[in-house]
Amino acid sequence: MQPSARAEYLCRRPRLGGPADFSLMTDLTSSLLPVPAPLPRRSFLRVAGASAATVGLVLAGCGKTDPQPVAASTTLSFGTDADTDRRVLNYLLFLKELEFAFYDKVIAAFPADLSAAEQAYFRDLRDHEQIHQQVLNNVLQVLNKVTTAPVQSALPFDFSTFTLTTRAGVLAAAAKLEDTAAGAFLGIIPRLLNNTLFTLTAKMASVEARHAALVRDLLTPGSFAGPDVLDAAPLQAGQALALTPTQVAAALAPFLPTLTINIDSLPTA
Amino acid sequence: MNLLSLLDKLSAASGPASTPPAVVAAGPAPYVGRRALLRTAGQVGVRALATALPLAAALPAVAGVSETTFDSLTLLLTLADLQAALYTRALATPGLVPAAARPDLARIQELHGLQTGFLRGTDTLPGLFKAAGAVAPAVPTFDFSGSHQGAGPAQFADPFGSFDDFLQLAQPLADAAARIYLGQLATLRSNTPLLEATVRRQAVEARLAAHLRTLRRGAGALPKSWPSPTDPAAPAALASTQAGESSLRQLVPGVTGLRYVDFNALFPNTPVQTTALAEAFDEPLPLEQAAALLALFQ
Fold first, then answer.
1. Higher pLDDT, B132 or A13
2. Angle between helices B163-185 and B67-92 (to 10 degrees)
3. CA atoms within 13 A on the CB side of B155
4. Per-residue pLDDT for B38 more than 80?
């Protein structure tokens, strides 16, 4: 699909979290600065070849209703299912697909200075993300009463803003994604209505926190629970930082440059 | 909460002789079965807890607080006290902690102090218990040899004798802490601010546990930063910290009810490593095992 003028505008937006800057708080602060007005809603087209009941990640296609002169734009949303839990599952699934794609990419071409033990950790990290992804997929598949396995959505992730040719670059990238995913889980799973889903995703969130601690320690020993990933508010002292979907969308936008992440349908309370 | 007397009542077999706790008379019809035994004598009805949480100051009133919320928080406070005491004592033991690890342990100690402050109160904040009109239990005296202050044999090597021995206790305990928090989330489900605080605290415990595993890592790059079937066995007294972690199935909601996702069925051609299947999910530690573990040190 040709990037539209709007999509090009998105691509020209300053990237959050360049290779050497992985202070999450800085990134979050910068994302809270005045940002351009949100894109008008687009009409939606399904992913070609996928049924409506699969995974639920929806790409919006060519807009017809927007008055501004843009050729096309694309939006990633998490569905409008009456069951808000499924929207949350789609969101979590998106996070998992992002992380899996990242680790897959790293494993395909390890930097030369990543030790053998560290390479083994990265395989573990990828496997955990894949397991999480497949479990969430399976849950959605059954709930949506889809009998065939869903088409792998193959979102067009783009990790080119990361430096993945050095050990430090790979670890910094992993730390950013793991910290973001860990915060994203904390920010959304209390919104789940189903107790079993909550328990399941809380277990996943615990593993995400461990992932984050590991890669942070490998990068900077002792940074496992740094102030940038803990809540600074006095009443929340000693608690990990939870990220809202808005903050997560902003943090992850650079890795999905051709799509707009629309978090509007996620439950907020 | 006198955990020894609690366990005495919970188990069918006779345990250490103790006075059973008085059952609180206030409130609706008492829970039947074991839950009734988890009430603590002389405490204010916990429904007050909901309306007086410092976190809830700006939030609407929450419903559905149960008696067991109080017990859950008491458990978590004892756990936080235990870990705070362990790290305080370790840092105060001359020559125990290598210089490179001191800042890490100080950070961990600080974070446990923040949790005890959150629950019991600090100079500037009343703490969750006081804000609810309840009384936080006093800090227990802990015996980290597992001998119950000399009442029995030591259950494991003196954790303040060498750094390796310290880690041999601290690391499984940290894993257990993460699991205990996971285990209490279901109890706190009905109280949203408390649930959010606890799930965020659980994430911190998970990070701490991962770091202790990093500190403990040696030849063969074990243990990994997460509980794994590849883990060396914990000392026998700490077996509960590992029990139930290697699960190859997960309970999920289905169309008509709950069902299990079986990993062997989901990954028939094993594109993932077999060990990763059990590693991918941390498992909760239920209340009884958690209480028994904490009682080991009192």
1. B132
2. 170
3. 22
4. no
Residue B291 φ then ψ, to 5°? -60, -40
A185/A96 Cα distance (integer angstroms): 11
Q: Which of residues 225-254 of B touch A (CB under 8 A)?
A: 225-226, 250-254
CB proximity B279 to A under 8 Å: yes
For residues A208 and A178, the answer to whether their CB atoms sit within 8 Å is: yes
Contact B107 A200 (CB under 8 A): no
B117 and A237 in contact by Cβ < 8 A? yes
Query: Which residues from chain B sit within 8 angstroms of residue A244, using beta carbons?
Result: none
pLDDT digit string, tens, across residues A73-107: 589 989 888 899 999 999 999 999 999 999 999 99
Are the CB atoms for B70 and B43 separated by under 8 Å? yes
Q: B185 CB near a chain A CB, below 8 Å?
A: yes
The minimum CA-CA distance between A231 and chain B, rounded to whole Å, is 9
Give the per-residue pLDDT at A149: 56
Alpha helices, H only, A152-243? 167-188, 195-219
- H helices of B45-94, in order, are 47-52, 67-92
Q: State both tokens at B126.
A: 């009343």
Contacts of B259 in chain A (CB under 8 A): 142
How much is the pLDDT for B221?
A: 72
Tally of CB atoms within 10 A around A209:
34
Q: Do A138 and B261 touch (CB under 8 A)?
A: yes
Cα–Cα dist A93/A87, whole Å: 10
C-alpha to C-alpha distance for B63 and A14, rounded to whole angstroms: 44
Integer-rounded Cα radius of gyration of chain B: 20
Whole-angstrom Cα distance, residue A165 to residue A168?
9
Fill in the DSSP letter of residue A221. Answer: T
Backbone angles phi, psi at B260, to 5 degrees: -100, 135
Sign of CA dihedral A61, A66, A70, A73: negative
Q: Check: CB of residue B289 under 8 Å from CB of residue B243.
A: yes
Give yes or no for residue A32 having a pLDDT over 60. Answer: no
**Contact, B135 vs B70, CB < 8 A?**
no
For residues B182 and B285, the answer to whether their CB atoms sit within 8 Å is yes
Contacts by B150-159 with C-beta closer than 8 Å and gap 24+? Answer: B155/B235, B155/B236, B155/B237, B155/B296, B156/B235, B156/B237, B156/B238, B157/B235, B159/B86, B159/B90
Mean pLDDT of A141-152: 70
Q: Is the model's pLDDT at B44 over the cut of 50?
A: no
Using DSSP, state whether A6 is helix, strand or coil.
helix
Structure tokens at A171: 């670890």
Alpha-carbon distance B285 to B175, whole Å? 10
CA distance A188 to chain B (A): 10
Question: How do the residues of chain A divide into helix, strand and coil, expressed in percent and rounded to 5?
Answer: 50, 5, 45
